[in-house]
Amino acid sequence: MAATAGRDVYIVEAVRTPIARGKANGALHNMHPVSLLAQTLAELVSRANVSPEHIEDVIGGVVTPKGKQGANVPRLALLKAGFPVSVPGVQINRMCGSSQQAAHFAAQAIASGDMDVVVASGVEMMSVEKMGSDVSMDGLSELVADGFPHQLVHQGQSAELVAEKSTSLMSHARASAAIAAGHFNAQTFPITVTDADGRESVFSRDEGVRASIDRTKMAQLRTIFKADGVVTAGNASQVSDGAAAVLFASGPAADALGLRKRARVVTRVVVGSDPVLMLDGVIPATRKALKAAGLTIEDIDVIEINEAFASVVLAWRKALAPRDGLARVNPNGGSIAHGHPLGATGCVLLTKAVHELERIAGRYALVVMCIGHGQATCTIIERVTSSKL
């Protein structure tokens, strides 16, 4: 049963960093995760033209919370960004859905009346803290041996179970075209990076996007999780570094602070799904969100599905059967092209959705992500037009 809707919640600003390859030669590798998120938070409040003292909480997703990504990165980042010490921060981990869950928590705090202005954010430096390095494989084996009632499998193995043959050509082509057309200019900001030798450079565009793909080479990529499988490095999301942040406000607070209401949060859901076939959670999550909003898939103008693997998007298309196939899905490319900085991707996709709705003058956008061990998060937002202010 759905809970009472509560107060309207608005997105008033959304920004992301360009996404870098999550490797030692990636453009952001020499930055500290705290510094990367701090720059993102500073950019967010600067663009919104709001004083940080009005922010009541900063919620941040981090999927590998250890080493440089431990010790509550959002709190440290907001302090480094110059926010008042009175602004709290908290770090959460719902695996790939972490910063989308941060957005849900932010919206829920405002809808309930507990707060009026909240930041949702996320950061992941996969070149700094390796994915999965926060968990002991011995510990998982021990858990299974102790009678755990489900198999614990890698997402890639799950991708094989739901896979259909596909390539990443469309994702790279759309992302490359979006970069060329300047579609990402308004949602990203340049970052000055200092390398190990003290030399400065400016990083301003998603690093993993390829303008051209060699079909022959892609077809020859070895499979990763199954000898006769279909999942390769070419149709899976890239290991990445990046950060994003979204500023939420209640209607009265937005009006009082002179903030522009850009999108209204229509509904937000999280579901559990089969922990083995974990990647198909995007299907029930989408259906639940649409039902809660009283909408159909044909009402949605922009659909952002996290491309953890190509098979996720293809399984979703088969189940939801949108009239135009994938025409509205990841219109500017997805994580296969620009990358998947785990803890940040939810807010990255929300940022892309807000800006794309404005660019095409659409009304509704849907953002959905699969999550490890069988979960999925989904958000529907509605663009605010001047007549609604």
From TrEMBL:
The protein's name: Acetyl-CoA acetyltransferase
Domain Thiolase N-terminal residue range list: 9-250
Family: Belongs to the thiolase-like superfamily. Thiolase family.
SUPFAM superfamilies attached to this UniProt entry: Thiolase-like (SSF53901)
GO molecular function, one term: acyltransferase activity, transferring groups other than amino-acyl groups
Keywords attached to this entry: Acyltransferase, Transferase
Cited CDD domains: thiolase
Residues of the Thiolase C-terminal domain: 261-383
Catalytic residue positions: 96, 340, 370
Keyword Acyltransferase set for record: yes
A Pfam family: Thiolase_N
Domain of life: Eukaryota
